Amino acid sequence: MRDFPGIAAGASLGDALKNAPLDTLENRILLGHALQLSRIQLITQSERLLTDDEAVRLTALYRRRLQGEPIAYIVGEREFFGLAMAVTPDVLIPRPDTELLVELALERLPQQGKALDMGTGSGAIAVAIAHTRPDADMTALDVSEGALKVAASNAQRHGAKVRFLRSDWYSALTGAVREFDLIVSNPPYIVAGDAHLAQGDLRFEPIGALTDHADGLSALRTIIDGAAGYLKNGGWLLMEHGYDQAEAVRELLARGGFTDVQSWNDLAGIARVSGGKIAI
């Protein structure tokens, strides 16, 4: 952690923003969070002086960030698909890249359709789909009780109708044979031992949601191998994966009997999602 003496009581909000140790955006986020002020309020109240308690609280937040803790965990939320999603260390922090998966799902989900989100984590994908398409029948699974609590709170916060089940992949789907029009998933796909797991925000996120502790494809294989038993004829399976896994995932889909197999690029031009239709 870089040397940081702290924020002084009596400093104005404007000075606190200018002299804080992070970039302007992160400074603004932490200051707004500590004082419960909007961006506009920070501007209009720039001459306001920090109290002792506010200076102590703000200094503590900066020190957490300087130690590497993700901003999303510090403030307790991250925006995803235009919705503020609560996050805790029980769940991955939603990334903008994953919005591609939601967009593709919405394009393929029929009216009154039934969709399944596997390994839902914060519920970001399921909640975004259900919020955008209130006609949909949305089910979301996760093996983590902590994650399911976060996901349920996000669904309630946004009035999204989602049924949450604790499940090790398909294990809890009794009686759900071939009932879904769509399955989506952002499973753990980082290869065991990848150096990125010890860097940046990933150091603080749940390891089991990041890596399969194997070749990075085992969770994807499990999802593909079981999907035919739960998808309706012509139903789509869409999965996020690593930057270099698109070809391998397409091969797994083709071997699994999927048609129209393809990959889609994220905003950076990286093949981020692959999927296909099932013919039974």
TrEMBL record:
CDD domains: AdoMet_MTases (cd02440). Substrate binds at residues 186-189. One of its GO terms (biological process) is methylation. It comes from the Bacteria. It is an enzyme of class 2 (transferase). SUPFAM superfamilies: S-adenosyl-L-methionine-dependent methyltransferases. Residues 98-193 form the Methyltransferase small domain. Keywords: Methyltransferase, S-adenosyl-L-methionine, Transferase. Its EC number is 2.1.1.297. It catalyses: L-glutaminyl-[peptide chain release factor] + S-adenosyl-L-methionine = N(5)-methyl-L-glutaminyl-[peptide chain release factor] + S-adenosyl-L-homocysteine + H(+). InterPro entries: DNA_methylase_N6_adenine_CS, HemK-like, N5-glutamine_MTase, PrmC_N, RF_methyltr_PrmC, SAM-dependent_MTases_sf, Small_mtfrase_dom. Residues 16-76 form the Release factor glutamine methyltransferase N-terminal domain. One of its GO terms (molecular function) is methyltransferase activity. S-adenosyl-L-methionine binds at residues 119-123, 142, 169, 186. Pfam families: MTS, PrmC_N. Methylates the class 1 translation termination release factors RF1/PrfA and RF2/PrfB on the glutamine residue of the universally conserved GGQ motif. HAMAP family: RF_methyltr_PrmC. NCBIfam families: hemK_fam (TIGR00536), RF_mod_PrmC (TIGR03534). Belongs to the protein N5-glutamine methyltransferase family. PrmC subfamily. This is Release factor glutamine methyltransferase. It comes from Herbaspirillum hiltneri N3. The lineage of its organism: Bacteria, Pseudomonadati, Pseudomonadota, Betaproteobacteria, Burkholderiales.
